Structures are given as structure tokens and as C-alpha cells.
Amino acid sequence: MLIISYFYDSVSMDVDNIPKPISDALKGLVYLDDEQVTDILCRKRNLNSDLRIENPSSVLAEGLGRGKEFLYIVVEETPDQGVIF
């Protein structure tokens, strides 16, 4: 499962254009083929809005502290594939 968060400061891109190049770029680094990815959660957030982030990782906190556009990507086990939530 890929969880992609795109933090931008002024001009954003369409959220549906974000995942494909990222999943392709991770091929061979994180997984053998992007066919292995079964779930993607992709979101975009404006850095200039009121963001409430609970328990950020040190990497996410560092990115937010810089105040510049960045991607935060998490790869994790897919939740139970028999359950749709």
C-alpha cells in the first residue's frame, strides 16, 4: 500500500496525477513491480492552510518545518484485503 501526501505552498497539481510517477519510480527499489501495489491513498494539502497533524514522524515533521513543497510517502502492508472501508 502506498500512502502519498503532497504538501504544496502555492500551485498544486491534480491529485489524480500524483500517484503514477511515484509508483513507477519505486519499482525495483521498494517492490519488484508496481503491479504488487494493491492500494493507494493519495492526498494533497496546502501548507498555508490550518493543518492539524497528529503524531507526525520525524521525517514528516522535518518536511513541514521547512515550509516548502514536498512529498511524504509511506509504504506499508495492505490492510485486510477482504475488508473494504
Describe the protein's architecture and organization.
With 85 residues, this protein is of the alpha+beta class. The protein has helices at 19-25, 58-66; strands at residues 2-8, 40-46, 70-75. The chain has a three-stranded mixed sheet with strand order 2-1-3, with helices on one face. Strand 1, helix 1 (19-25) and strand 2 (40-46) form a beta-alpha-beta unit. 5% of the residues are buried. The model has no long low-confidence stretch (mean pLDDT 92).
List segments where confidence is low: pLDDT < 50 over at least 5 consecutive residues.
none
Q: How would you spell out the order of helices and strands?
A: EHEHE
Shape, principal axes of CA atoms: globular
Range of strand content: 15-25%
Give the topology.
Layout: E1 2-8, H1 19-25, E2 40-46, H2 58-66, E3 70-75
Parallel strand pairs: 1-2
Antiparallel strand pairs: 1-3
Features:
85 residues; alpha+beta; 3 strands; globular
Q: How would you concisely characterize the structure shown here?
A:
The protein has 85 residues and is α+β, with helices and mostly antiparallel strands. It contains 2 helices and 3 strands; from the N terminus they run βαβαβ. It has helices at residues 19-25, 58-66; strands at residues 2-8, 40-46, 70-75.
